[in-house]
Amino acid sequence: MNALRNKVQLIGRLGQEPEIITFEDGNKMAKFSMATDDSYKDKDGVKVERAYWHNVVVRGGLVTIVENYVQKGQEIAIEGKLTNRSWEDQDGQKRYITEVVCNELLLLGNKS
Fold it and tell me: Above 90 in pLDDT, residue 84?
């Protein structure tokens, strides 16, 4: 068996316009949230639909694609890995976030 890998594949829609961050050295990073949908039947047989929100970070050459072609509501497919980070907010509280660091992106359709 091959070594286990941290790999995530998602198909969903952007919940916001991508945020493009430019660093002092000229490198860029894109951040956005995307929703994936799921449904199931509850104990009474009623279909329940739910959206799951994911924080996505894009670095490197893919930032240009996000910057020029990706917009709120658009359906995309991404592949990447899960990462966790923490920081202290202004009140001194420790905060945590889980993000998908995207290394592949496919445009599937325009916003509906």
Answer: yes
